[in-house]
Design goal:
- The protein is of the alpha+beta class and 495 residues long.
- It folds into four domains: 2-56 and 428-494, no CATH class; 80-88 and 288-410, no CATH class; 93-124 and 242-285, no CATH class; 128-237, no CATH class.
- The protein has helices at residues 2-22, 34-79, 81-85, 87-90, 166-174, 287-312, 328-341, 374-392, 398-410, 415-473, 475-494; strands at 93-97, 103-107, 114-122, 128-130, 144-150, 153-159, 182-189, 192-199, 208-213, 224-225, 230-231, 234-237, 242-246, 249-253, 257-262, 265-269, 279-285, 314-315, 320-321, 361-363, 370-372.
Length: 495
């Protein structure tokens, strides 16, 4: 009997240990995949709110991007308006020179029509000095200090045994940190090698002088100091100003690109005139500049119109609405844009140019896009450039009105800035709600996990009890061998 009791106690202890082992592993007691169940229930619990917040975020981001596109199109348009706002800038001019071998000319917005007589006596040149011939570029010249001066600037260069050759001196001059405006090179001919020192700037004020001190005296061969009558270098070209006449009046320039001689005109002197043979420089209106500016403006307007139609429209074929479909802000801008473009100037100085239609710009009835008739535009610009400038520019010009309108939308305190701030605030709110939802779902998931684990533990405990009771009340299966052994032992002892 004592043996039987001992056996039963051992079995109970083993079963309890087994049960404790089972309930530490989620789902083992019940046989369920608790992690998957909790995940599915948590997802289902938050699905509606998750989808709603995700949809809100997508919509808001699309609107931010859409308003960015609209704002970009307005900036592109506004960039074309500065030239049109000022009638004097729109009135472009061009300059031509009859004899292109003598000069060429360009104009700025300050130019005025006119015709001028131009004669060039000489071009502006820079100084050039050449040494006597040496045997070769590596021939030794001497040591000491060379001082080079151009105008009011000068530098002193020390020449020692490491660079006392013709090529070494040239290199030392070119690498001098305070080079006053000269370059040096060596030319080698059948007559020998010579050092050439050239000025980098034209004009009489940029003459070159070279002096030397110290050393072995060899550098004296490179001295050029006309003031002290020492000219051991040969001046092959003098530094001089350009001399020319305009309408018979003498003028000079330190360089060959002359600005300021004629208002709004830059003259590039290229050659000298034959004696007493002036050429003609003409400044005349150039409608091509204005035509280009106006064409760029029309293209930019079409860009704005296209952006508004795309962002606010609805594609029936794909049943897709634009991100700003029905947006009042863009519709209001389009209405104001159309009103300005339809401006008719009934002033007394229109010169027959009272609307965009008069310069060949009309709106397509179907698309609203501006169409430009280049022939009509060029004719208007040629006939009355001033009237075209007044239609577009000035206080009440179309370009001025458009610039004021765009500023109301794109300025620092403009409408688009306020709208973007509102959208960013909404996006921030959605993000906060998403964060809060994730925290809520995490709590919900933890609660479910706790409840399912408790259920799992209970099931595991019930199974352990079932196993124990089965062993106690139906011992034939699990205890038959043990009982047989026990009986056998009793019989033997009895014998």
């Amino acid at each position: 009997m004592s043996s039987a009791v001992s056996s039963t106690g051992s079995s109970s202890t083993s079963s309890a240990a087994s049960a404790n082992s089972l309930i530490t592993s989620t789902g083992i007691g019940s046989g369920l995949n608790i992690s998957a169940i909790v995940s599915a229930l948590t997802t289902s619990f938050g699905a509606a709110q998750t989808n709603e917040l995700s949809t809100q975020q997508t919509t808001l981001n699309a609107q931010v991007s859409a308003f960015g596109t609209f704002s970009s199109s307005l900036s592109t348009l506004q960039a074309t308006l500065s030239t049109l706002e000022d009638p004097s800038q729109l009135a472009g001019y061009s300059a031509t020179v009859a004899d292109t071998s003598i000069a060429s000319a360009t104009t700025s917005s300050d130019a005025v029509p006119g015709q001028y007589s131009l004669e060039v006596q000489n071009l502006a040149t820079s100084a050039s000095l050449t040494s006597q011939a040496f045997a070769s570029a590596s021939a030794t010249v001497g040591t000491g200090t060379l001082t080079l001066a151009v105008g009011g600037a000068s530098t002193s260069i020390t020449i020692d045994s490491s660079d006392n050759t013709l090529s070494g001196i040239a290199s030392a001059i070119n690498s001098a940190s305070n080079n006053p405006g000269v370059t040096a090179s060596v030319i080698s001919t059948t007559g020998g090698a010579r050092l050439v020192i050239s000025g980098t700037s034209t004009g009489a004020a940029n003459a070159i002088t070279v002096t030397q001190t110290g050393g072995d005296g060899g550098l004296s061969s490179l001295v050029y100091d006309p003031t002290n009558n020492i000219t051991n270098l040969t001046q092959t070209q003098a530094a001089q100003d350009a001399n020319f006449t305009l309408n018979g009046f003498a003028a000079t320039s330190a360089n060959n690109v002359v600005s300021g001689a004629i208002t709004g005109v830059t003259i590039d002197l290229l050659g000298t005139s034959a004696a007493n043979t002036p050429t003609t420089l003409s400044v005349s209106a150039d409608p091509s500049t204005a035509a280009t500016s106006i064409g760029t403006f029309a293209t930019a307007v079409n860009g704005v119109i296209s952006a508004i139609q795309t962002l606010t429209g609805y594609d029936a074929s794909t049943q897709t609405a634009g991100p700003l479909n029905g947006n009042a802000t863009l519709q209001s801008f389009q209405n104001q844009l159309e009103t300005i473009l339809d401006t008719v100037d009934l002033g007394s100085n229109t010169g027959g140019i009272a609307s965009l239609a008069d310069i060949g710009i009309t709106a397509d009835a179907n698309t609203g896009q501006l169409d430009t008739d280049t022939t009509t535009l060029n004719n208007a610009l040629t006939a009355n450039l001033t009237a075209v400038g007044n239609l577009l520019g000035g206080t009440n010009g179309i370009a001025t009105q458009l610039n004021n309108l765009i500023n109301q939308y794109t300025g620092p305190a403009g409408l688009l800035s306020s709208i973007n701030q509102g959208l960013q605030t909404s996006l921030s709110n959605v993000s906060q709600q998403q964060t809060a939802l994730q925290a809520e779902l995490a709590t919900y998931s933890a609660t479910l996990t706790t409840e399912y684990n408790a259920m799992d533990t209970a099931v595991a405990s019930l199974k352990e009890t079932q196993t124990y009771l089965t062993a106690e009340f139906n011992p034939s299966s699990s205890s038959s061998s043990s009982s047989s052994t026990s009986s056998l032992g009793s019989g033997t002892l009895g014998t």
